[in-house]
Task: inverse folding
């Protein structure tokens, strides 16, 4: 069973920064497509950013230029550096790991709360 453990959430003022981490169990981390999603109260879960095994990244328009996703394959860890945070970034952030196959079932972390005060 693959386990994803997130950390780094918390309460921050608008304009501040946080860094989320997600560590994945097992020994095939390097081939996963890793993603960060978020879900605000009353809203659907949405993709924030993802990074492929080759290091290619993709971001939601709402976070481009403010958030940076990165991975450290030696540590089985993916990061989300969040700068210039806004109140609308408030959500539970989830880590996601998926094999690069069309029918692959993704694995999810338990989520970490990020709250940005105005």
Result:
């Amino acid at each position: 069973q693959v386990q994803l453990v997130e950390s780094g959430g918390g309460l921050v003022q608008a304009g501040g920064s946080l860094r989320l981490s997600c560590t994945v169990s097992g020994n095939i981390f390097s081939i996963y497509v890793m993603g960060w999603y978020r879900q605000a109260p009353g809203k659907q879960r949405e993709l924030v950013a993802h990074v492929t095994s080759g290091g290619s990244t993709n971001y939601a328009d709402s976070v481009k230029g403010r958030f940076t996703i990165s991975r450290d394959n030696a540590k089985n860890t993916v990061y989300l550096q969040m700068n210039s945070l806004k109140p609308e970034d408030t959500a539970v952030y989830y880590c996601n790991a998926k094999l690069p196959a069309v029918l692959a079932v993704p694995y999810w972390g338990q989520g970490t709360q990020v709250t940005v005060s105005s």
